[in-house]
Design goal:
Layout: E1 7-11, E2 14-17, H1 18-35, H2 41-56, H3 61-84, H4 100-123, H5 131-149, H6 154-172, H7 176-204
Helix pairs in contact: 1-2, 1-7, 2-3, 3-5, 4-5, 5-6, 6-7
């Protein structure tokens, strides 16, 4: 798998490696499929994690370990969407807003998780090159994927918050392709959030008795 860590091309003076490019293109496809509420978003997410795991395994143990968690959450998302997709008229999941209790739980989990993971990264420097931002992105990604698995509109907001740190961090550490992809993520997130927002309002709108279907 050494070819995954070899250079694919140079862009604006930045060296783009195959694993960075392939994993993030798959991540971009995952987000687009999530916008469309396609069940295929989860297999593609799993494949993205598998590619990055193969690239990191053996020399970046911490990064490889993080991809294992991402793949596990992708399997959970697949299972969750399989269970709930037939509840809507179009055979796909029905987006909804999280309750205030769910929002509070996710914020608390994100905060506590970021602190715990960052302290772990600090205790074992080989796991991360920049413990606090890396922990924030990692935990934020897991929270976003969990909210997506539950069909919550708030998952788009979680991705936006991850992007705010992910873009500058990737550029600063030489992962230029990841940085460019995160910028595109931002645009997709805004469009996807609008679509899910409108669908959730439509799903929540009560149907008057006697009104045409």
């Amino acid at each position: 798998m050494n070819w995954l860590n070899s250079e694919a091309f140079t862009l604006f003076g930045q060296h783009i490696i195959w694993s960075d490019m392939t994993g993030n293109i798959l991540g971009l496809i995952t987000l687009a499929l999530g916008w469309r509420r396609s069940l295929w978003t989860w297999p593609v997410q799993f494949l993205s994690g598998l590619v990055l795991f193969a690239a990191f395994y053996g020399h970046l143990t911490g990064s490889a370990g993080k991809q294992v968690v991402v793949m596990a959450v992708a399997l959970y998302g697949w299972w969750q969407w399989q269970r709930t997709r037939n509840r809507s008229g179009d055979g796909q999941i029905t987006p909804r807003f999280a309750s205030w209790r769910e929002r509070a739980a996710m914020v608390a989990a994100a905060g506590a998780g970021t602190v715990a993971v960052a302290l772990l990264f600090q205790a074992y420097p080989s796991l991360s090159w920049d413990p606090w931002p890396d922990a924030y992105i990692f935990v934020g990604t897991i929270v976003a994927m969990y909210a997506q698995a539950k069909g919550m509109v708030e998952f788009w907001i979680a991705w936006l918050l991850v992007d705010l740190v992910g873009v500058p961090l990737n550029f600063a550490n030489g992962y230029a392709f990841s940085g460019f992809v995160y910028v595109i993520y931002g645009a997709l997130v805004l469009w996807g959030m609008r679509d899910w927002w409108l669908r959730s309002r439509k799903a929540a709108r009560p149907t008057l008795e006697g009104a045409p279907a």
